[in-house]
Amino acid sequence: MFQQIIDRRLAGKNKSIGNRERFLRRHKDQIREAVKRAVDGRGIRDLAQGEDIHIPKRDISEPVFRHGQGGTRDMVHPGNQDYLRGDRIARPKGGGGSGGGGQASDSGEGDDDFVFHLTKEEFMQVFFDDLALPNLARTTLAETPEFKTHRAGYSSDGNPSNLHVVRSMRGAIGRRIAIGSESRRELHRLETHLDHLLSHPDPNPYEAEIAPLRLEVETLRARLKRIPYLDPIDLRYRSRVRVPMPTSKAVMFCLMDVSGSMDEARKDLAKRFFILLYLFLTRHYEKIDIVFIRHHTQAQEVDEQNFFHSTETGGTVVSSALVLMDDIARARYPTAEWNIYGAQASDGDNWHHDSGRCREILANRVLPLCRYFAYVQVAEEEQNLWDEYAALSEETKAFAVRKATEASQIYPVFRDLFKKEGASA
What we know:
Layout: H1 17-26, H2 28-40, E1 51-55, H3 57-60, E2 114-118, H4 120-127, E3 146-155, H5 165-198, H6 207-225, E4 237-245, E5 250-257, H7 264-284, E6 288-295, E7 299-302, H8 304-309, H9 319-332, E8 339-346, H10 352-366, E9 370-377, H11 384-393, E10 399-403, H12 407-418
Parallel strand pairs: 5-6, 5-8, 8-9, 9-10
Antiparallel strand pairs: 1-2, 3-4, 6-7
């Protein structure tokens, strides 16, 4: 039996979407490397855009089958006035080739790399591939919970595609047995009595009894035949119920140092890191809160606009940001319902007596609430804050410290901090 299936799913104007997805999967490594090269040549604010990436043709070549020429062939080239049959033709001299195979000839000609345009969504998907919030757990039911379907026995109503044939036939057999059991016993009794009368050597005296007995037997047989083989009440359907599932609710605290020691270059590095973090979180997670905290001698919760563009500055007391984070987390984000994360960027310059307090606040108050906390220092000098944080990072895997002193180091550091477990950086 021949069956034809027509896919009528809408693919918009992009009719080759299936081919694009196969190409992205097949050449994932080459595209990832091309995206990394493209990142180095664009600004951080232009990150969430599409990109034309170049892939060497040798990286996308695939084996193919061709028919061999084999045997002896005679060919006639029209317009040939230079050669006769049997002449030997010399190879072209240097510069006469076509430049095939991706190698440029002496004439400067050659094959271009394969150019493939990634859309904004595809570029961001490759850019943030293999990244995830560490230790993310499903904690509680959200206001709009996610549902998962589970089997819940059988029901008498349902979709025909969910009909359970075996269960339905089992019910039909039981119904027929229950309804016809009394009639069958009576039929069996009458048939036995009728056979006994008919087997008598002289049944003539019993003719008056045999005729109505035969009529009653036929009536019972007809009654049993009218019992339906399969009745609508026998049908049973697989039943499924939607059970609310716990969801992953997460909050990320972004702490940025805006003190006087953070010059424009260092602030730019910190902003680059937090822009990457912001794009990553808003793209990959629907149910996530982001709390922005700026600090100098005092910490303040601000909105996104002020966090990235405000020009306020002052001295440095790093512990003020950690105290504010702890207060907000305990007031608005109970750990039984939320996955709490923190990311801090600073140049490491801090009031000397405050660095030890920072470590104490992190170790005793902040880290017990957090599933993961990352610290990025945007200066090379290792001051007392770095020493305290580095010592603390050796005591727990939930706290990580890194340095990024150049713009080119931001992306590798970011991937190292938020790579998936078991994935290479």
